[in-house]
Amino acid sequence: MADRTSLERLRAANRRAVLGALVGHGPQSRADLARSTGLSRTTISGLVHDLIAAGQAVETTERGRPHKGGSGRPPLLVAATALHGAVAGIDIGHHHIRVAIADQNGAVLAEEAQAVDVDDHGSAVLDRVTRMVRSLTGASGIEPAQLHGAGLCVPAPIDRRSAQIRSGVMPGWRDLAPADQLAERLGVPVAADNDANLGALAELHHGVAHGVGDFAYLKLASGVGAGLVLGGRLYRGATGIAGEIGHVQITEHGRVCRCGNRGCLETEVSVPRLLEHVQPTHTQPLGAEQLLALDADGDPGVRRVLGDAGRTVGRALADLCNSLNPTMLVIGGPLCSATSLLDGVRAAVDRYAQPNTAAAVRVAPAALGDRAEITGAIAMAIARAALAD
Fold it and tell me: Helices 195-206 and 372-388 sit at what angle, rounded to 10 degrees?
């Protein structure tokens, strides 16, 4: 029975991966699906058959091109069945809530953001999210029955076994199952994941990593986290905390981290920490936007701080590259376009990763900026809603 249950879960996960690829990338051939998901052609054929039988996908009359310009008859394409109605995407950060209502194609119909102190107020924040979703649904002209689900982004890892937040970085959310709690309030299915994972998902479907099968997305913000995409699919690990690179120890005698350990990566390179380094040399209050402008203008102090931060991050990413051999490292967060930061990451990867591994990996800024998490939440909601139909 246990083996049968495990196989059913694996097949369900594979169906979600295939449907997610169709929702995110549009119509594809079976061969394209095999390449983008890492599944075998035989497995893809069976899953596509199941999705068509369930009315979740259709085989179109449109034909694609043979792979790499090969000869032969162009393959038929498979497309996800259009979802009628809308979904909600919810991005909860440490200091903000952003809610968007989107149609079945991911186009945003209405959106609102509010500045909120989130970490100590789990239930109250979910109450506020509920009010925002209902208000925006009405403003979009969407009937309550047409809301098919929601995708929820939180800035903390979610335990896959219990669906709860176990981390102490958000005290008011500890042992709370955010997806279950919000589903009770909204009356629709809710899927939840952490911000780095959803940033990776967004960059995979709509950003700089579109079509890339193996990459790491690093979010450098008030904390530091990574989302891992392996074989075209988000990799969460056994309990859902894969990618917690911000809590790699980089110095034994460093600051105490909010996780309880000492000398974690995020205690040295988080955006608040970098601002703390730079602020004494400037009379005006600085934020991330000012750091970017100063870096672009060639400010030597800012370039030094961001370059050092990039090399520190790159040292940790080099170890990740040696283990996973990714095609790309995508740097996200409010400083993702800082040239000094990116150059520092590149230099450290070149120095500390194996030469062949370093040569194979590209370091690139994220394309979606602060839209990554809400975009990923919407994409997750559409994929889950399509599976539930």
Answer: 80
DSSP 8-state class, residue 75:
P
Crossing angle between the packed helical segments 41-53 and 2-25, to the nearest 10 degrees: 80
Q: What is the pLDDT of residues 244-260, one digit of tens each?
A: 899 999 888 889 988 78
What's phi and psi for 44, nearest 5 deg? -60, -45
Contact of 366 with 372, CB cutoff 8 Å: yes
Q: Are strands 57-63 and 86-92 parallel, antiparallel or unpaired?
A: unpaired
Q: Order the strands of the 362-365 sheet from edge to edge.
A: 233-235, 224-230, 215-220, 328-332, 362-365
Average pLDDT over residues 114-122: 93
CA distances from 182 to 161, 208, 301 (A): 18, 31, 45
37 vs 310: which has the higher pLDDT = 310
Return the amino acid letter for 111: E
Instruction: For residues 90 and 149, give the distance between their C-alpha atoms in angstroms, rounded to a whole number.
Output: 11
Determine the Cα–Cα distance for residues 288 and 30; give it in Å rounded to an integer. 44
CA–CA separation, 378 and 80 (whole Å): 16
Taking alpha carbons only, the member of 247, 245, 226, 238 closest to residue 169 is 247
Using only the alpha carbons of the chain, give its radius of gyration.
21
* Residue in 156, 205, 208 with CA at minimum distance from that of residue 179: 156
Measure the CA–CA gap between 294 and 304, rounded to whole angstroms: 11
Give per-residue pLDDT as tens, 264-295: 999 999 999 999 999 999 999 999 999 999 99
Q: CB-side exposure of 127: number of CA atoms within 13 Å? A: 4
For 177, other C-beta atoms within 10 Å of its C-beta total 17
377 near 89, Cβ under 8 Å?
Answer: yes
Give CA–CA dist 203/199, Å, rounded.
6
Q: What single-letter amino acid sits at 210?
A: H
Spatial neighbors of 20 by CB under 8 A, at least 6 apart, are 205, 379, 380, 383
End-to-end CA distance of the chain: 27
Which carries the bigger pLDDT value, residue 318 or residue 78? 318
Instruction: Please state, in angstroms and rounded to a whole number, the distance separating the CA atoms of residues 211 and 200.
Output: 12
Q: Tokens at residue 93, please?
A: 């950060």
Task: Fill in the amino acid letter for 242.
Answer: A
